[in-house]
Structures are given as C-alpha cells and as structure tokens.
Specification:
By secondary structure, this protein is mainly α. It has one domain. The protein is built from seven helices and no strands. The two termini are 24 Å apart.
C-alpha cells in the first residue's frame, strides 16, 4: 500500500474532533437564540423570531455517528483480521497438500476435510462439501466484511453531505437580527452579550467585545466546516478504495473456485492473500488514526 496516498494527519484528526464537539454544542447554541431575542424585547425592541430549520434535527445523530466511527472501524478490523487468518491458514494448508501429493493434483480430487476450514463451527450459508465450497465460504466471509466497510462509507457520505445544509443554517442564524427594529446587534453578537448565552467553544478570542467575539466565532466555525468537508472527503475516498479492493478480493475468490489443479489454486491464493493484506493495511491505517 502506498501510505502517502492515504496519510491522515494529526491536524485532520483535530478538525474531526472539533467538528464532533461543534455538533454537540449546536443545540445549546440555538436554544439560546430565543433568549437573546426575548432579552431585546424586554429592552423595548420589536421581537424577532428565528424559524426552526429541520436541517438542525440530524446534528445530534451525526455527532453520535462520528463518535462511534472508531468503534465501528475497530469492529471491522477485528472481523477482517479473523477472515484473513482463515484465508492464510487455508492457503498454507493448500500448499502443504500440494507438497504431499502433487502440484498437478486435480482440485476436485482433494479431500476437503484436509482443510481446517471444513471443521468450522459456523457457516454463512451451509457447510461445504468440497474444496470449491470452502473457497466459496471464504468469499462469503469477505463479502460480510465489504458490507461493513460500505456502511462505514455511507456514514461518512451522509454526514459530509448534511454539513453543507448545516453550514447554511448556522451562518443564516448568526447573521439574523436580534430584533426587528435594528440591523444590529445580530444574533451572534447578542449571544456573546451575556455569559448565559455565550456559545461554548474552544477559541482564544482577541477581545471581550461581543461584536469582535461574534465575528471570530462565526469565522472559525465557517473555516471548520470547510476543514471537515476536506477531511470527510478524504475519508470517503479512502474507504471507497478499501471497499473496491475487498470487492475485487471477493471476485478473486469466486474465480479461484474454478481452479483445476492445485498449482493453479495456489497461484491464485497467493495473489488473493496479498490483496487481503493490502486491505488489512488500509483498515489498520484508518483505525490507528481514529483510535481514541
């Protein structure tokens, strides 16, 4: 695997972590907006109301998806490690059988019970009755892994796509009037006008002035959205690449079922095992970066 082509940095991890925290703080920030508008009303201004946008509804779910992403990746890694272990044992045993008989031995005449996999305690469909059936079982196991990886990608794509709508809602809300009779203070400035409504955010502000803080807060969050789009795009491409490799591996296994002689089977198994190890290297790389 070309690691440089998939390298994830510590800076990207910080962007991911900050976006997760932002999603968690967002409901509290938006719940404070009516308090800002009501405070202005009590000061004699015309009440402004910010309509609720349904695009906010998924923020808590997206936060949880991202928080759980490492655990799901780790579960996939462990699943993959087990399946690759099965493949490596099968490959080694096939080589041993060829050494004890002949590399020209027809696969159809090899006793499938010589393989450890024949004694598996569980099967994806039904117990194998020949060597081709064992190879089919291996393919089914890797199909299960590829399905898990595909679900990981769908999570990334969903959160990535919804970030655009969320950014629009956030910017619009921060720029909204805090009363109907004046253009300022904006909602963002009003939020920073009282400690009770000040957004919880990890930013070292340059001033105590609410207008300056509001501008810095908004600019930082907008930049965070851009950073998250970049990170999630790379994650999506990486996971798609992993999924495509696994899909190819499954097809390789299905083709190996048609091997006529042990020499042909072992040649194909060597290539399949190499591909499987590439997949595992990619999955390990992602899991290490996500690890908490």
């Amino acid at each position: 695997m070309n690691v440089l082509a998939y390298e994830f940095s510590a800076a990207q991890r910080r962007v991911l972590d900050r976006y997760i925290r932002f999603l968690g703080a967002l409901p509290m920030t938006f719940n404070a907006i009516p308090l800002v508008c009501e405070r202005r009303r009590k000061e004699g201004h015309q009440l402004a109301v910010l309509a609720r946008d349904s695009r906010l509804n998924n923020a808590p779910f997206n936060q949880r998806y991202l928080q759980e992403f490492w655990a799901r990746t780790e579960a996939s890694r462990l699943l993959g490690a087990g399946y690759i272990g099965d493949l490596e044992v099968f490959t080694r045993e096939s080589l041993d059988i060829a050494g004890k008989t002949s590399r020209h031995e027809p696969v159809s005449q090899v006793d499938f019970r010589l393989f450890s996999l024949s004694r598996s305690a569980s099967w994806k469909l039904f117990p194998a009755q020949n060597v081709a059936g064992l190879i089919h079982e291996l393919a089914l196991r890797f199909y299960v892994l590829s399905a898990e990886i595909r679900r990981l990608k769908h999570t990334v794509v969903e959160v990535h796509d919804e970030s655009f709508g969320l950014k629009s809602v956030f910017v619009s809300a921060m720029d909204h009037r805090s009363c109907l009779c004046h253009t300022t203070p904006t909602v963002a400035q009003g939020l920073f006008g009282d400690p009770l409504t000040t957004p919880v955010w990890d930013l070292a502000y340059a001033s105590t002035d609410p207008a300056i803080r509001a501008a810095e807060y908004k600019a930082d969050v907008v930049a965070l959205f851009s950073g998250f789009v970049s990170v999630s795009t790379q994650m999506g491409l990486f996971i798609e690449g992993l999924y495509q490799r696994l899909d190819g591996l499954c097809n390789q296994l299905l083709q190996a079922m048609n091997a006529v002689k042990l020499s042909e089977l072992n040649f194909k198994l060597a290539a399949i095992t190499e591909n499987a190890n590439e997949c595992m290297a990619m999955l390990n790389h992602l899991e290490v970066w996500l690890r908490k």
